[in-house]
Amino acid sequence: MQKRILLLGSGELGKEFVIACQRLGQHVIAVDSYDQAPAMQVAHQCEVINMLDGEELDRIVAKHKPDLIVPEIEAIRTERLYDYEKQGMQVVPSAKAANFTMNRKSIRDLAATELRVRTPKFLYASSLDELIISVNKIGFPCVVKPLMSSSGKGQSVIKDITDIEMAWSAAGKARGEATRKVIVEEFIEFESEITILTVTQKNGETLFCAPIGHRQERGDYMESWQPAAISSGQLQRAQKIAQKVTTALGGAGIWGVEFFLTKDDVYFSELSPRPHDTGMVTLAGTQNFNQFELHARAVLGLPIPEIKLERNGASAVILTESAGTEPVYSGLEEAANFPDTDFRIFGKPVTRPFRRMGVALAYGRKESTDELRARAAEVAKTIEVR
What we know:
Helices cover 31% and strands 28% of the residues. It contains eleven helices and 22 strands.
């Protein structure tokens, strides 16, 4: 049966989700704050609104009467989602999940206090003076993040006392003066970071994708690879934590659950109740279903018998260095000459420094993930955006 799906946020992750839904015969309305966002280019209908305006959100929901509401970003008046859920609409994965994960305090308190999973030590601050006190309690180095932000926006590493005021300023610019609250985290000397893509089903068991390794710069993902190296004991602990947190939040869909791996332990870091940017590596055919197909099947209630790792893969982002409109891409022909690779251009109409404009992919059954990472990076380097 065809469902009407209202997609709130229409970036590159939403675009691949729309494609997956259309292949299953669904009708998608893509919403974002600007016209011609990537997912709008492939959706049946689109709307341009400020999703932080509750009345505008109510208007769009009333206009389209969706069966499912699928948030793709955090910047939404998520408290409104509870009302839509009460009206009988399915919020993906759930209104509670969307509301809790928009605010780092809610999800961290749930994980550390209620569920008692291992996280970095943390404190909160709502003023510069509180930040100074919290940093001194946590110790140097430490990490400061706005309570409400995504993709590393406003995140800073404080190495000594001279960095504190700059970190406070960066957090304020990310979310605005009125909402300037931060979390101060212990800096974990981790060996690697991983994402466990976790799929919760309406009428089936929770499933896990093979672990994904990733590297960040400026708090944002630069490359990812699958499978990531992890001991069986650490993998079991990570999967147990992922299942515990997703069960507490409820609903069906895919979740990107992030962890720090030390030599002997696993620390819960963050969680996104939607396809994850590091999971774009699954577009390299690493699994029998990529993360967007898994999300679509899960939210529609279609059974997923199993998730199989088919081959190794790696992804590397294609960035732009300057601000402008109507971007021009070069090097596509050269990039297409690399064997066992692919790339996706997202179709964003506007550029700005370090904006993610595409992704390069590499895959193979015999090559190591290190070899594939190098190949994906070469493809990404070949493509220029101006």
